[in-house]
Amino acid sequence: MMPETLVEDTVVGDTMRVLVIEDDAEMASFIEKVLVEAGHSVDKAIDGERGLELARSTDFDALVVDRMLPAKDGLTLLKEYREAGGKTPALFLSALGDVQNRVQGLKAGAEDYLSNPFAPSELAARVEALGRRQVGEPQVTSLKAGDLEMNLLTRKVTRAGKKIDLQPREFRLLEYLMRHAGQVVTRTMLLEKVWDYNFDPQTNVIDVHISRLRAKIDKEFEEPLLHTVRGAGYRLQG
Fold this sequence. Notes:
This protein is α/β, with parallel strands linked by helices. The chain has eight helices and eleven strands. It has helices at 25-37, 48-57, 74-83, 99-107, 120-131, 168-179, 187-193, 205-217, and strands spanning 17-21, 41-45, 62-65, 90-94, 112-115, 142-145, 148-151, 156-159, 162-164, 226-229, 233-236. α2 (48-57) packs parallel to α3 (74-83) and α6 (168-179) crosses α8. The two termini are 35 Å apart. The relative contact order is 0.13.
């Protein structure tokens, strides 16, 4: 099932080069359009063999891989790519979206998994999040976004030198937002990465925690850092 709308309120960051491995020409063109509108360049492969060849021979910032591909299926493709030392972060984009299929995709070496049908804004956000990952980089012990600072070892958070006290879940939420500062983070991403949900519980838990976080990091300061991106999610100003 094809999504009906393209990305709204896209925030364009650094240009990424993305390899889309998808045998459905209409879907591949749609994915390309979404990513190009988000400011990125796209290469395409229509089967697993060609996709693996391109992934191995060309430097990409992210891979978007379908599960069901001719010549070589997506799981096999990614397993072989990882076994050969390939480190480009990958996202599976598939109609096979239940928990078992997601687990299979992650175990095969993917960093993320998005079920189809999907929101174009979420696809762009997840691909951009992949681009921020650098496999094998030194362990990060502190994060910074503007005058907001977080020490991951002492769990101390300050803004403009003023200490901010956070509850454990608020700390985890802010950490995720800071790791993706400047990027749109969707509600689904927060549910999966902060609350460990693989489904939407249909509650206002995110709204409540975002509101509490705003009160602590923005209320007493002139310049707000945490923004709502209409129809997409949230963005912490970098």
